[in-house]
Predict the structure.
Amino acid sequence: QLKRGARQMVFADGNPDAKIMIVGEGPGRDEDMEGRPFVGRAGQLLDRMFAAIGLSRSSDDADASIYITNVVPWRPPQNRDPSPIEIDMMLPFLRRHIALAKPEIIVAMGNISCQALLRKRGVTKLRGQWATGCGVDVMPMFHPAYLLRNPLAKREAWQDLQAVQERIR
């Protein structure tokens, strides 16, 4: 049922050797059309956010790149959030993906990725504090789509990005 209506699987983008892995929630309409995660307006903001700390999904340098994936690889029907059952169904694949990529840091973008990686929801309370998920340091952050709707939260997102930048130095 999860992939009903999805055009294609949206797996990952960026440098798989990157120190930082970004885990989003699931593909939206633009991502489903293009087959890459974070390519719509939220993805453009994500690219600008990480460019501000010197990182890019297109860099070949593992120290200057990011690797991006989602908890679920298909756009859920009606663009709804993945259900807890769907998240749990995809969790073994996400864990294996993380184990193969071996990131030093994971940035959990939004509630769904926090639920999958940390088994907790409430990104507003979780953000800005390092946690551990799948054996990796995790920084929960607001999803870029949330930041587009709530621009005042960008200050907190900037603080979180600075914490990520400090950790990889």
In short: The chain has a mean pLDDT of 96. The beta strands are 12-14, 20-24, 66-70, 105-109, 131-133, 136-141. The radius of gyration is 14 Å. The helical segments are 29-34, 41-51, 84-101, 111-118, 123-126, 144-149, 154-168.
